[in-house]
Write a structure and sequence with these properties.
The protein is mainly alpha-helical. The chain contains 5 helices and 3 strands. It is globular. It comes from [Clostridium] fimetarium.
C-alpha cells in the first residue's frame, strides 16, 4: 500500500489525539510523541516536524497554551502545553463528529 494513503488517513486525527492527551495534565512535545506511540501500540507515530506545527496551530486557535519550564540544577528547559477551556469544548465537539464519521465509514466498509 502507498504510504501516502496511510499518512493522509492519520493526518486528520492527530489534532484530536493531541488534545485528548492534554486533557489531564500539561505535557511537553517529546512526552506527547512517546505517549501517543505507546497508547496506540505504535500505530500513531509523530515526528517533531509534524507535532510542533499541530501544537502551534492549536495554540494560535486558542485551544492550547504553552509555558516554558524554569530548569533547576541539570534539568533542561522544556515548553509545556496545556489544553484551554475552549480546547476542552472543541475536543468534546470533535469527539462527537469523529464518532459520527467513523460509524459511517465502518458502516460503508462493511457493506
Amino acid at each position: 500500500m502507498n504510504k501516502n494513503y496511510e499518512r493522509q488517513l492519520k493526518k486528520g486525527v492527530f489534532e484530536i489525539l493531541v488534545l485528548q492527551l492534554l486533557i489531564k495534565e500539561e505535557k511537553y512535545g517529546y512526552q506527547l510523541i512517546n505517549e501517543l506511540k505507546d497508547k496506540s501500540d505504535g500505530v500513531f507515530t509523530l515526528k517533531e516536524g509534524t507535532l510542533y506545527p499541530i501544537l502551534y496551530r492549536l495554540e494560535d486557535d486558542g485551544l492550547v497554551v504553552s509555558r516554558w519550564s524554569i530548569p533547576s540544577g541539570k534539568e533542561v528547559s522544556r515548553k509545556y502545553y496545556a489544553i484551554t477551556d475552549e480546547g476542552r469544548a472543541t475536543l468534546e465537539a470533535l469527539k462527537i463528529l469523529w464518532n459520527g464519521f467513523s460509524d459511517k465509514v465502518i458502516e460503508i466498509l462493511h457493506e
